[in-house]
Each structure stands twice: as C-alpha cells, then as structure tokens.
Amino acid sequence: MFRRYVISAIFRRNVASYFSGVLGYLFIIAFVVAGGLLAFRTQFFTNNVANLDQLSDGFPMLLLFLVPAITMSAWSDEKKLGTDELLFTLPATDLEILIGKYLAVLAVYSIALAFSLTHLIVLSVIGSPDFGVAFTTYFGYWLAGAALLAAGMFGSVLTSSSTVAFVLGVIICAIPVFIGSIAPSSDLLRNLSVREQLHDFELGLIPLSGILYFVTLTVFMLYLNLVMIRRRHWSTGQQTSMEFQYVVRAVCLCLALVCVDYIASHANASKDLTHERVYSLSPTTIDVIKRINSDHPVKIEAYISNDVPREYAPVRKQLIGLLRQYAQIGGSAVDVHLIDVEPFSKEAEAAKVQGINPEHVRSEREGRRYEDTIYMGAVVSSSNDQVVIPSFGPTTPLEYELTRSVRTVANQKRLTIGIMRTDADVIGGQREWQIVTELKKQYSVKEVSPDSPIEDGKYDVLMVVMPSSLTQPQMANLVNYVKKGHPTLLFVDPLPWVFNSGFGVTQAPRLPKPAPGSQMGMMGMQRQPAPPKADDGKATSLLEVLHLAWDNGRAVWDAFNPHPEFASVIQEFVFISPKSGTKGAFNQSSEITSGLQEMLVAFAGEIRPTRAAGSVKFEPLLRTSPNSGYMEWDEYTEQGFDFSHGFSPTARLREDRPHFLDPRGGALVMAAHITADTPENPYKLNVVYVADLDLISDWFFYNRSHGSDSNLDFDNVTFVLNAVDVLAGEKTYLDLRKRRPELRTLTGVEKRTAQFVEDRIKKTKEADDEAKQLLQKAQHEFDDKRKAIESDPKLSPPEKEELIRRLKDGEERRLDVKKNDIDRKKQQEIDEIKNETERKIRETERKVMAMAVIVPPIPAVVLGIVLLVMRWLREQRYIVPERRVESEKRKK
Fold this sequence. Notes:
This protein is an alpha+beta fold.
C-alpha cells in the first residue's frame, strides 16, 4: 500500500521548489505564447474554422521541448546537490518517491496547460468552437504530456547535469513523437506515434486505444525510472546479471504493452463528445437495422486497404467502427465481412469484379509527394437487390451511405425517378451525369421522353434539367404534367457554367438550340437548323403555371466568400451559408434545406413569385447574402463561337462586368418549393424550382466521395437528394444525411471584414458612376458642337456635312482617347479600392493574431508577479532587523 502522506510530502516539496524562482513562471509563459503562435498563425485565418487544428499539428513538437524543460531537474539536481542520498534515506519506498516526483512534474505541466486554456477564450470571442471537441483535444494534450513527462524523467535520472538531462529528455521523447515517420506505410509504427494517437482526441472522441497507449507508455517509462533508482541496491558482483535481467524484463513489458495497444487500436471503442454526436449511430440507423428480416439477411462486404494515407486513416477507422456496430446491432440479420485488400492480390481482383476500383490518392509525407493505390468501398446485397459503394472519401457521410444501402437492398421495391431527356444530356447521352449514378443507389431511374404525354402515376418524381431547351410541343407535355400536381424537380440556369469550353458557354437559354446531326467538317458542310425553343427559351408557359418570375439571362453575383484561400474566385461563384448575414440563407423550416451548412452555385438565376400568385405557396430555399446583386445578359456576356462544333454560338464573359449591390437589399432567391392544393387554384402544384444547373455538376459528387486537397465539403449533393426525397415522400434519410460537425467559422473576424467588402462595392460603384458621367459629358459636348453646326444658317448643307464629318472624325478620336483615359483611371481606382480592402482585412487578422498571442499569457504573468511579491513580503517580515542592516552595509 502507498502511504499518501509520504507521497504528498515529496509532491509538495518538488512543486514548491519549481515555483520558488522566476524560471518556473517563465516556462509557463513561454509555453502559452508558443501555443498562441502555433494556434493562431496565418493558416488559421485562411482555414476560417474555429478550432485548434493548427495547435494540434505542432503540439507534439511543442511537448518535445516543454517536457524536458520541466523534467530536467527532477533527478539531476538531486544528484548534483547530493540530496539524493538524503532523499533515499527517508522512511519512504523507491516507488513512493518516484510517484511523488512524477505527480509533481505532472502538476506543473497541468498548471501550464490550464493557463493555455485562455486560447479557448480567444477562440470563443472570434468564433463559435465546439467545446466538446475542445475538451477532448485538451484531454489528449494532457495524456500526451503525462506520458512524455515519464520519458523526460528517465532522461533526468541518467545524469547529474540539468543541461545533459534536457538533451537526453529531447532524444527520448523524440522516439514516440517521430516513430511514425520511420516507416509511414507501417500501420503498427504509425499507431505507436503520439501524433497519430492524438488524432481521435482532436476529432471530439475519447478513444480507448488512445487512453491505453498513453497510459502504457507512462507505465513503461516510469518502470525504467524505477529500475534506475533501484540500481543502488545492486551489489557489485550482481551488477551485470541484474542489468541483463532488467533489460529482459523491460523488453518483455514493452512487447506486452505494444500488443495491448495494437489490440485496443482494432477495438474502435470510443466516447463521442462532439456536439452533433456524429460518430455514434443515429436512431434512424438503429431502426433500419432492427427492421431487417432475418430470413432475408443483408450482407456487407467491405474491401478496405490495410495501409492508407494519413488523410484516409480516420475514414478507415470510422468505417470499420461503424460496420462493427452494424454487425453487433443486426445480429444474424446483418452479415459483415471486412476484407483486407493489397494491390495485385486475389482480394483486389475480387473487389474489381464487384465494381470497386482502386483509388489513386496523392499525399505528402516528410515533404515528399506519393501516389498510393487504395481500396475503400463496399458491396451491400441481399436476396432482393444489390448496391455498390465504389469508394469512401474524407468528406463522404459514411453512416448515411451505409444505412441507405442497407435499407435499399432490404426493401423489395424501389421508388421510381423519371429524368426527362433534354439538351443537357443528363441521361441517355454519351456519358451519364453522376446525379443519375447517385440516384440509382436508392431509386429505380428511368429515362423520360419529352416528345409524348407523360404517363400519370408512373414516376414518383420527375426531374427535368434545362426545361428551357424544350420545343413548344415538348414544353406543353411538361406543363400538362406539372399542372396535375405530380412531384417535379426543375433545374434552370441563365449561364450553365458546366458547359463552358475554351470558346465560351453553350446551352444557355438565350442562345439558339444546337443543330442536330454531326459536327461541321473542315469543308464547311451545312447542318439542318434546330427547331426553336419554346417561348424563345424563356419558359413562359411553365412560369405562368408556377406563378414565377425568372429572367433567362439575368445572373446573380455575391461578394460573400468565407474561404480566404479562394479569394481570387469570381463573385459569380456564389457561396450560400447561414454565416453570410442573411436570415434564411437556408430555409430552416423546410425539410429540404434545414441543417445545411454551405453550398456553391455558379452564375445562378433569380426567381420570385408574381403578384398573381394567389393561393400558390412560394417557399424560398436558397438566398444570397446582403452584399449581392444581379447582372443583365448584355452586361456580363458577349457573342462567341465554338469553332470545334460547327461555329455554334457561345456566350463569353466580359472582363468589365458590373457588380452593383441590389437596391432591394440582396438576399436574392435562387431556389424555391412551389405548392398549390387549394380549391382557389385551378390546378395542383408540387415543384422544386432551382435556378442553377451547376450545383449538380459531376465535380460535387466526385468531391463528396473522394475529397479534395482543400477539404471542401459542400452540401450540394445533400440538397438535391433531399429535394428528391421530399418530393417522393421518402423522409427516412433527411436527418441522417445532414449528420456532420457544424461548420464553425470565425464569425467575429467575418463580421469585422464584411464591412470592408461592402465599402469596396460601394466605392467601386461610385468610381463606375463617375466614369459614366465623364463619358456622358464628353458625348454631350460632341452633340452640342454637332447641333451648333446643323443650326448655323450661314452654312450650306454640303458645308454642314463636311464640317460634321471633320468634327466627327476629330471628336471621335479625341473621345476614344478620353474614354481610354477614363477607363484606365476607373480601373486604377477600383484596383486601389481592392488593395485598400485587402490591407484592412489583413490588418484586422494581424490584430486578432496579436490579441491571441498577447492576452493568453497575461494571467500567468499576473499570478507570477503576485506570488513573487507575496514571497518577498513574507521573507521581509521574518528577517531580523539587525541582519537586514548588516546585509545593506555589505552591499555598500
């Protein structure tokens, strides 16, 4: 049994000695300042996320120098001052002395870590962090420090020099810190590294494997400390024999602890403390699993590479953990097979046969670029159906994908989605869009011809992409179908950027319908002209039924951009987010958009209800920010031709596109749910109308399943699937699809910089207006001179014509020069305004960074000053006056 009072006495002695001078407080201040520099560096503002990821990246390196600084005097000073002999003659066991000293250094580290909690105060001021994630992150920091402190003490017990002890402590602590870098492809070595074990804590989890790793590392290093302090008991003749015995014991203990850690790392037991509980099975998933008929079990074959790049390691771990939970809850109704796949193996061939192809993932390790071939997919099957999930990526909603597939194959009948054939060639063309592939995982997808009336009751949802490309008879078939109240999802777009080529954008509603037949060859073969679009591409008959106003050439722009790393993205690429300052950017009362965090659209249109809407309900789904507006077709496009497709007309972007704020206050609607089912309305309606086609481009589906270098995680796919589900009356997956950590941005910084952006837009408009006034003035001067010549009675008509011609030639040249000067001056002013805005934004970020570094150490500084002053006053109180006088005389 340990004697608490003995351990307590040693503990108090060592803690008091550490804080008896200024050095202890300086270490704490240095630790907090270094933490602030790591946590709030430039990349922190570029990422625009309220978390401590930047600190976590550098925390093992920070511990590599902090821990030896705390432990270097733990044993070495005792040897240097000769107090170790006195210490070991006390009525205390070696283990009690070791525990007392270890708890002392752990207390010092805990105090330093507690002072660094001020980083969370700064984080909460400039953003909205998840404090569940913050708790697990700091708990991981504490466990990591506790383990390395034992290693640092082992360095101190080997020498009597504090300096040497510091160096040895750095070397010993570097082993668990850098062991994963020795062989990055080794799963075992990677799991033995401090950085890898901290990763789950940073996600908001408390993993059993992580706790066991740090505890076992602590136990092992403390055991080595105990061996070294017990060496004094060995006799000279037994020295070699005892050393060999303890080396064998240490090796055996190390192997046993490594085995325990390895087994625990495959158990995937953890506690989820994230605010949204995104790593725990949802009630929807549990209900789906329990409803599976055990007579028709579901089989899940997961093909997963054993060695994956670091960014895929959390995906692999979470996927395996989820599958084990599915198997545990499902029992005999869910048969889970985890198949380790190596390249060129039999398992790899089996995966390809099943439709799971290898992914070539580029990653960076130790400053070098690698391309890894990995397998990470699943086949979910039953006696009724089969669904293949080709790949899981860093941004893939794993639980949703698995649960949807399980429920799809467990049900005997799928709902049917009809996709109408249009010029967009979404289905039935040379290459189907990814939206079709995604829908086939849940629904039965059929191609619908627009050339004949659409059969009632055949489709649960009809999806039409670019109805503006339909001919008049085709449009009539669609309108008649919509008027009967059949669920319909419509995508329109004034400038479909997905059809952008080097020659411009094709398929825009304002452009002629592409001519049928083959491309025009080099000899200039003519093609048969295409039939005209219905309502000249305006979709007027459809809009009248829906009681909507939509200009087929008007495009929306938005100055809101929450991604500083993409500052050069043009403002026609609109980011939709609740952080934009628009209440209802995502309609939280709609099942389609509630819970969404961020979307991206390109050259979207604006829609609004007409005054005659009456009983038709117009429910906005997507809105821009207050700093937004729109441009007319002629303001942002110019005529072009696609020479590779028979001189087909295209629309090219103008460089001098105007970006003026909408006088109505922004918040333009780009998508809405239109319904009507009342006696006052002559027909029923159930339509989701989206004024952007690009939001369902293949890139968003690829990014969702594969991830990207920038880890963008847009909700475009979720929005579209939600719209289809709501229209089909299938609401099982709505909540499950939205499960993920909340997007917690630096709202404080965004609010400060938003005003700068708004000022920039206003000043740009003022510069443009001033340029227009100057041009108008120059034009008026020319008109006045021309009128003066025309009204001069002394001149004959031929003379007037000659003078006007000369005036025109001279004035046009001068006017052109003046226009160029005005345009150059305007562009210079606009560039200066942009540069000034960027300077203000950078200045704001630097101020926040300075506050984040200066404020956190203030409590430690104040406490240190207070305690040192109290100590000085206490010493002054108990010094005999005569000794104080003698001391002053000696100083003189």
